[in-house]
């Protein structure tokens, strides 16, 4: 039976069962996915293409309709041609593509106008089985209209028969105060289980794998603590600068853009205790608990940087952050940050968690690295380097344990090597879905595990807000670093100072690459 | 600093003595190495099978690869009236000489000499001694005596070496091959005899499994890695399985095998040695005696094996098999009629100490099985407090000794893709892929080199041997006395199902959901 191809609904049913134990799934089975801000960049480049891939791969419920909403006077045809360049449509898929767009409709209206949303509500009701359908509202909108739109959805567009879910994109405020205001506003309109805050890092294969790795393997249990781990490093590096789009970035800076959300989420997954179950709230309870054990980052545990052009570089590499014409003159916004956090609980007391992120660095890489303590009572004359367990999030997903092995041959001395799991080699034929595909699917299935809960968000802002306010008030000048470098040398010094050991004797090479 | 300078130095080819010097340093901290630097390697039993197929070829490979000290001479001794040329011709088929190496082979055999004599004859050994003295710097040379001989002449030869052939200025080392007796008593007799003639640090008992790359790696893996320390004990490990499987039978040479059986041939030595390396505490240092002290300590914590913890088997032909597979052990014309010698054995042993109390160590070995494989497998316990609906299988750490050396950790990962359920996978280190250009030396090469360097770590000490026999002798005596019939199993099978049942009974879990495939194979 398994060898027969499954129908789309069957596949979805299996997934739903796995993701959500099939509970709370209304048999109405008709879904309407509403994209608010359908004419914007995010919708065109990410949301529509993702919906198309899910539709194409048969991962959505059979009866699903898509409704775009924005201010512009558009047609589905216009949306189609705007999205097409991002949808990677194969020649053989034109029929499916037409089927996809035949399920699309578009409606224009004003975000602050109750009338427009009444109209949207009627439109949704008028779709096939529309009044019973479950509704997913994706807010692909600038923060300025969030309040109006959410209020209008709540009052005029929610279904009484199916369920309603609202997907929200960052920024979720810019500090503790503004984020709290937004959360309070949202919770006055929707219950927590209707709100899906996207942090797309939570949709990445290796980030999702962390729980299975940690709690599905007996070998990691006894060593995942302060007794064995010397420090944890979470890294996000980009090899390019703002490329003329620094105006938007400058408002936020690298801490808000990457560290406070993506890196801190990974930290939670690495540091949390085992949850009572894999249910969304049990998991998020544990993540919040980790954040509660972290005191706000102090300025002395942070190194901030801003990239300058490399005169010897080529093209963009010649340009500093301040050369970006959209960046305000003399901006002190960091494009690089290293911060050391401590989780003050029984498992992690004293273990530095080093968060590193930056633009215009020497490579593209997101990874998690656990560095273990030295072997006590060394018998190999200090020839052993520290073990490390590395989970490489992107690019080239991999897990590897850096360890010592006997130098092969007639020798008896230890040498660095690794136990490796490179996804591309091991899972050659498996297509890893994009983070947004997984996350949107989760919303359909009602699984909130990979979304940020209000209290998580609050704790995250609590940790970073004092630092952010301090540097913004003092206009602390970031340390300049060269485009394409490792970032400011002070960051490496900070890591060394808190106990990370870098020997430079080992470089991971994909052992499968011939 | 000096790193660049030393890197440049490294890139220059080293002279043979320099290479050897580095190795010596690595292996033995360069202590106790006499500066005379002339060595004579004496092969007793130079006309025999072992010498021809293994010793001479190994010496040649070491010589060819520049791993022996510059001034080393080789002297064969046996009863037959031979010449170096005759030995050369006999050994050549086993020496794998490259076409470009003709000159080098000549150089090797130029350093070879042969003396014939009787093993029990004082005069012959006096003659040998004179001959050794007559070699260049012969009177100062260190001497290595390799006993490639049947046990029947061991007594005489060792006595004669001791009385007539010892170097007085250099050191003397004696390399001994199994069998080291056939039970506790006979082994003790032999050990007592040897120790009346030589000191323990002159005796090198070969167990060639100790020369294998992955067996030698066990110490570095265990004691060089922080990640394994906290889980290498009864709290985390459910069972340890040590396996040796051969896919072929006795192939007409069962007569010799029948005297010993699989327990003496494989289990009591190779598997038990691996067990020691897996189970031992961390030694005070990597010096030979510190390591062997710890190995003996493990053996002392093991009670003698009993028959209810063992399954013995003997293979029968598979009527549907091809060639040899059709033949039973008892069809081998050299095997005594109705022999009850085991060709397969599974035994469960417990190490009664604080680290291992209650953890079964399962030793499995056999001939005519379904595959060729030697490995160490640690099976970890179930994850306590499972949150994945019992979908997780047990972790295993596998050290594959042969063929295709590898280390891999079988573990759970998220099923890749849109799923969230756990799935079995592995963290892998396959030597064939990771160390593509590294030639792994043969076990004998390493071990002979160790003897040159004076490193006894990979050789069996008298007390180790005694303890090993203590564990197996009662079972062996019982089986031989009662002529316990072994369980029949088919040529090419996994062995008797009773063995798998025993494994299961003591707690090894086999889910059958996972099969390791070399992840590098396209």
Task: Please provide a brief summary of the model.
Chain B: Its EC number is 1.1.1.49. The complex is a heterodimer of chains A (514) and B (522). With 514 residues, chain A is α/β, with parallel strands linked by helices.
Summarize the SSE layout with pairings:
The complex is a heterodimer of chains A (514) and B (522).
Chain A: H1 8-20, E1 30-36, H2 41-56, E2 63-70, H3 76-83, H4 94-102, E3 104-108, H5 114-126, E4 134-139, H6 146-156, E5 164-168, H7 176-189, E6 195-198, H8 205-215, E7 229-237, H9 246-250, H10 253-271, H11 280-292, E8 302-308, E9 336-342, E10 352-358, E11 365-372, E12 388-394, E13 398-406, E14 414-422, H12 423-426, H13 435-445, E15 451-452, H14 454-474, E16 479-482, H15 489-498
Parallel strand pairs in A: 1-2, 1-4, 2-3, 4-5, 5-6, 7-10, 8-16
Antiparallel strand pairs in A: 6-15, 7-11, 8-9, 9-10, 11-12, 12-13, 13-14
Helix pairs in contact in A: 2-13, 5-6, 6-7, 7-14, 10-11, 10-14, 11-14
Chain B: H1 3-11, H2 16-28, E1 38-44, H3 49-64, E2 71-78, H4 84-91, H5 102-110, E3 112-116, H6 122-134, E4 142-147, H7 154-164, E5 172-176, H8 184-197, E6 203-206, H9 213-223, E7 237-245, H10 254-279, H11 288-300, E8 310-316, E9 344-350, E10 360-366, E11 373-380, E12 396-402, E13 406-414, E14 422-430, H12 431-434, H13 443-453, E15 459-460, H14 462-482, E16 487-490, H15 497-505
Parallel strand pairs in B: 1-2, 1-4, 2-3, 4-5, 5-6, 7-10, 8-16
Antiparallel strand pairs in B: 6-15, 7-11, 8-9, 9-10, 11-12, 12-13, 13-14
CATH superfamily label of the largest domain in chain A = Dihydrodipicolinate Reductase, domain 2
Radius of gyration of chain A: 24 Å
Helix proportion range of chain B: 25-40%
Strand content of chain A: 15-25%
Give the beta-strand count of chain B. 16
